[in-house]
Amino acid sequence: MDAPPLAYTTAEAAERATSWRRLVSAGAAAVTPATIRSWVSRGHLAATGLDDRGHPLYALPDLARAEKVTRGRALRLVGIGAS
Prior knowledge:
The protein is mainly alpha-helical. It has helices spanning 10-24, 33-41, 60-77, and strands at residues 7-8, 49-50, 56-59. A hairpin with a 5-residue loop joins strand 2 (49-50) and strand 3.
């Protein structure tokens, strides 16, 4: 069995954050790559490096932290009470 990656691309980070949000609430909206970029611009998430094409990579603990910090607002926007 392969070990999980140490860092995720923007698209992979969005997929991971979406799965976490949906664990909290089945009706939660997806986290898109644009959302990941927004978290970066708002200071919730920082890249830990770059891939071979110069695209940012994000560490799993940082991604989890950003998702948790932004979860309440995201769930309220789709009409779900935050937990």
